[in-house]
Amino acid sequence: MMDDNKSKNYNSILVSVISEILFENDNVEMDREKCYSYLVNDLKIKVQKDIFIRIIEKSSYFIHIPNSTYVGIKLTDQKYAEINDNVTKHSINKHINDFIDKKRLPIVLRTSIESLLFHAIYENINSFAIQSIDSIIPLNAKEKFRVDEINAFNDFLNDSSLEKNIVLFNTFLKAVEFAILTSGKGVSEFTQSIFAGKEYFLDTNIIFRLLGIGGIERQATLTNLIKQCNHQGIKFFYTGETYQEFKRKVDASTLEIKRATESRSIVLLEEMIKDKIEFNHDFITHYTQYKIDKKVRTPDQYTTTIMADFRTLCAEQNITLKSFEKELKKKNIENLQEELFSNKKTLNHYSKYTKTAAKVDAINILSVNFIRGQNNYNYSDIKSFYLSTDRTLNKILAKKAEDKIAETILPSQLFILHNSLSETEDEKDYEAFTKFLKRRTTEFKYTGRQVLTYIEDIRTHTTEPQNIKEILKAYSDRKYETSLDIDTEPEYIPIKEFAETYADNKFREAEIGDVKYKKALEKAQADFPIFLKSTKRIMKIIDVTITILLIPASVIFLKQLVDNIIVIFAGTLFIEGIKFLLTSRFDLYAGLSNGIFMIKVKKANFHKTFKEIDSTYINDATEYISKGIKIWS
Q1: Which CATH superfamily is domain 153-442 in?
Q2: pTM of whole model > 0.70?
Q3: Mean pLDDT per 10-residue section of the chain, whose length is 633 residues
Q4: Which of 49, 45, 46, 195 lies closest to 133 in space, CA to CA?
Q5: What residues does each domain of the chain span?
């Protein structure tokens, strides 16, 4: 059913579901009563029996077999073969298997990718209010995943395959269509009119992402989505409370950046970003990247730039202020604020969700309900949603809504709905959709804000920049090694304690290493006399060779010019005198012998090992021959 990209109305969705049931039953004849019971009781699909009978009898996909006590149903051979071919050649599982084989990944990661995919589907349909999602999505108890599992899932999404991206998109689209069309909330056909003319309130994190504070990829995909929705007549707003939260976070981040600038911690962060070390994106990393790119020079310039970027964003994307705070009752705001805060803490006791943030969400949710009025039941007529990145909030409101329609909608849900209703196939961006599904490895990386705090703590143990960066990298590797259980607090080692222990171990290693180094240096220095002896031997050979060859050659040469024996003798003495001056007065031999000695020193294994970090050995060798090498002594 998920791979059927032709379904656009209630009847066709129902036919797809029944086809799926029969296919999974290996197309063995099934009692129509049992099939109907499964739809109503297990899948919680609201359909009257006579409508169910009329739909399946009208469809050409099924064969109806009258029996003495019941009427059986099964797929036609042609339809069964068609579904089987589609599953074998084009299902998302086939693409996962192909990816695992192509990348030569462990088979166990196939299950991890499937589990993450099911979680993503669940997150995208749970707020569309079908009563028993667990019956169609095989979620297991696992809520947290290892970084290698998340990376494999993200790599699968990144894998460049148009066919895979289309199948992936259609899988999610069919899940959303199924949820909406079978919810019994006023939708019988999935068309553009369902969400046309809607008003969406943006949460603060959506604004941050549109400004690039969540990273370039998030900014690009979300900006394109907003543009697409604008073309379809969707309107976007922010409340006064959202704007105040936006301002508070910008101002607070600017103060942090100023303190980091004064302590020069920001310089270390710049170096780490230039070294391609990955961080979770936040204001600190965003400012640092702006500074690297020379877009700003100071924290105050950054604040001005962000506020200017916000105004430009609102103008370009038609985002305007719309506030109903005067119309909303203070008591209702306080009650919902407390309810959201309490539910968040119940789901995750260690959540950093504050009551201030809960108030912002409460005002946005109540603003959505104010626009909706009494219509919280019908998708076709409903007027407003709260566009939020908060999956936990989405989950809370979906549960609270019951038969009503939840106020929140995720960016990925919005993408599915509006991208699927594009007028032409060319307008659909299947690759962009994969970016909305990526799992963030936030629990395995630090934000810029955390890094600045850690730098200050580490400085109590070392002020050397390279040591600070090394400790930060080691601490990052250590994070979350002890627990991946969502129900328990991850066992952190405080950065101060870690830095102290790490530094002590490094010093101890350095002490041990220093002893070994000194022994190696002493052994290498003991080879100096051997190198000297060898050098002298070479120089003696050179000296004797020159002497033996020079005198006969000079006599032969002079005889060619003159016959006078006195002139020949005098010429020979003159040449010997020049040789004496070059080798003694002008140190020709000294330079040559020193050069030969140093070549031998530099070829030694000790020098090859330590030449990049220590010049002691070379300095000692130079000192050893500083008084000159006497060849014949």
Answers
A1: 5'-nuclease (3.40.50.1010)
A2: no
A3: 49 84 91 90 79 90 92 94 84 88 90 82 62 48 70 84 79 68 52 70 94 86 84 88 94 86 75 74 84 89 92 94 89 95 86 91 94 76 87 87 83 71 47 54 56 68 68 58 38 56 54 61 86 85 74 70 72 68 57 84 75 70 77 60
A4: 45
A5: 10-152, 153-442, 459-521, 526-624
